[in-house]
Amino acid sequence: MASDATTDTTKRDFLYVATGAMGAVGTAVAVWPLIDQMNPDASTLALSTIEVSLSSIVEGESVTVMWRGQPIFIRYRTADDIAQSKAVPMEELKDPASDAERVTEGQEQWLVQIGICTHLGCVPTGQKSGSAKGDFGGWFCPCHGSHYDTAGRIRKGPAPLNLVLPDYNFLSDTLIKIG
Length: 179
Hints:
Strand order of the largest sheet: 1-9-8
Low-confidence stretches: none
Helix content: 25-40%
Number of domains: 2
Radius of gyration: 28 Å
CATH architecture of the largest domain: 3-layer Sandwich
Shape: elongated
CATH topology of the largest domain: Rieske Iron-sulfur Protein
CATH class of the largest domain: Mainly Beta
């Protein structure tokens, strides 16, 4: 009889474990669609990176491309733009950053930044020829009067920070990948 009790206990333990395992699997199957729906959809993932050809941009010109619903300002800076940016004393900057910190080494002529003012999210002017570039030759946010220099650094106005730099890298001398 002792062996029958042991067999019953073993069967009971097996039934408890099997029931618990089935409950865990059932819960996982029920919860997975809820978790999976939180992933970004395919159209969002497709826009997570973009490649931009720089070959058609001439020196001194700026272009705007869209990435993740945000304007990206790409400027082919002139030697004058670079020299002016490097000459600015750090103590004059609200958000100190050297010109070298804002560009890729060896590609200093290219400035790539998110074109959204860091004050209230407006889009500054200065991308098009003839548009207001502010007091420092970079970008100007007419909504609240923020002035950015040729390195996208805040120089005057209420914006607290420099224009944000997106993650990007050079795939070649004339092709960049943003994101």
